[in-house]
Design goal:
Layout lengths: L2 E5 L2 E4 L10 E6 L2 E6 L5 E5 L3 H26 L2
Antiparallel strand pairs: 1-2, 2-3, 3-4, 4-5
Length: 78
């Protein structure tokens, strides 16, 4: 589970078994987690994140989207 980025206690990670899915990032902090598609920066799944947290996390993903896509391609060999 490579960590791509950390921000305010949130960890942005890939799960190595997710290679069959479109590019996405998992974002975790404590017992909260979100999954965000990188192509359109849409929320795929939300566990316990507030709307405010999701909006902030989406802003972070949008600002690092290209870097995350490059890291996805490097990690999964696409």
């Amino acid at each position: 589970m490579p960590t791509l980025f950390e921000w305010k206690g949130w960890r942005f990670v890939f799960y190595s078994l997710d290679s069959a899915e479109p590019p996405h990032v998992h974002i975790r902090k404590d017992r909260k987690e979100a999954k965000v598609w990188l192509e359109n920066t849409a929320v795929a799944r939300n566990k316990r994140c507030t709307d405010k947290e999701l909006n902030e996390l989406l802003d972070v993903v949008k600002s690092h989207r290209q870097e995350f896509l490059e890291r996805w391609n490097e990690h999964f060999g696409n």
